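cron nightly-structures :: item 1 of 1
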Amino acid sequence: MNKTCSPTLHSLVSGVQISAVLASALYFLVACSPARESIPETSTDIDGLMYCAEGNPETFNPQLVTSGTTLDITAAQLYDRLIEYNAEAQDFEPSLATEWHVANDGLSYRFQLRNDVEFHTTAWFTPSRTLNAHDVAFTFQRWLNPEHPFHAVSNRGFPFFYAAGLSDLIESVTAISSHEVEIRLSQQDSSFLANLASDFAIILSAEYGEQLLAAGSPELIDYQPIGTGPFQFAEFRKDVLVRYYRHPQYWRTLAASSQIVFRITQSDHKRMLMLLTQDCDISPFPPARDVAWLRQQPQIDLQDTISPNTGFWAFNTDRPPFDDPLVRQALAHGVNRNAIVSTVYFDHAVRADSILPNTSWAHHGTPSAYRYDPELARELLQEAGFPNGFTMQIWALPVQRAYNPNARLMAERIQADLAHIGVQANIVSYEWSTFRRRLVAGEHDSVLIGWSADHADPDNFFRPLLSCAAKASGNNRAQWCDPLFDELLSAAIASNDPKVRKIYYEQAQQHLAQEVPLVPIAHSIRFQAARSNIQGLLLEPYGGIQLRNAKRVHNAPAEQQNEEE
């Protein structure tokens, strides 16, 4: 295939000085990519896999976002991390780092890197060397150091790292030798390795960065990506598709499929039709209403896993009247969450009584704080000075996720419940990228959204979502900053003793139940549907999707494939 960069965008970027924001927008309008191939009519039209994705990626660098849609399409496909979390073994395992050692004081971590890791070779970049410690230092310093030349080029920030406190935690990242890196911390942090194993902690190419800087187009590092992962970027057409090709020098076993095409299809109903008509091979988040029916279809393999996640309703506590805990408590008591589990999730979920999933060792439910009690809700509203209620907005997530299969329907159920306590709720939604941008800007009254675990440490549901740092990074949907809550979290991560940590996390959950910056709705089962001739497809409980081992078996009867699997 002739891989040529789009001359339109290339001339715009290199010929004039433009801001990172404008460059980003231009990229999404005219993707700088290899010469375009035709859009496949069916999944059998490509030598690879067709994946029906629910939305566009916001970027091709998962460090810049917390969106699950973007993480699914980019993280495990294009990049690798120093270490990974093995959910089955419940432990960390090597990836780009073959081994690591922790100093006795818990403040120094040394990672030994592999010697044979090749970066992607594309039309726009040819690496002259393999991965080394300089790449790791470059990647970390980019988000740690505000003076780093790539720190602000995409004008997005690094929300997960800031929200999780890593920006303050890490004192230095040093290349000790060509293949050894030392990371020094300012204090002990029991969740540090877990955060390094998350989909956000991918490694970039320092050599590619130097090339872009010399060319005057550093912003392309996030939109013409170069990684070490099993696939390499080929093409992106907004609202249409993303195409990747197999990385031929991948350091692990080569990807089982020669290419992956993500068809952007926001409608869950349309994605199911495309799956049934072989217009795609894999479809995430099948409609909850169709799960029982899909189980009966011999040509469909329906996978499910207990994926730690929480769908929640967050209040913008910077806006009146949601700055008043009494109002937030009233709204919590005004919603029938049992009915939502039944009608929105079709009982493929359990009611959530904490932001922390009930599968976590630190879970401490407080059901009384969120119980359905309309009479109590009206009393609390009157005490707060709203005897006749008020008018508010509920922002509904415009895409399907495991934690919320139908936010619009959920918003309608909540709207009906609130009417009974005198609160008029108007439902608001936008196209996905606009929704996220305006959400980060804090333009919402309240929002139906959620979180899926990146790793097993309970901190993953606290600091990234509700800390003061998360508010500063734009990832705290409740815009809630509470010093006492932050102190409890800091005390929890400062200890490596699960018993001690559990005490602090219980106190944190009790504090949330009193303040109610958000209402936990449900912990959902995660589903994924695929054609029955797709082999090697795993549904991981943590993190996004992993497609490097997935492949289509041609012309094999469904019954035979099921036996082989």
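cron nightly-structures :: done
The first helix runs from residue 7 to 15.
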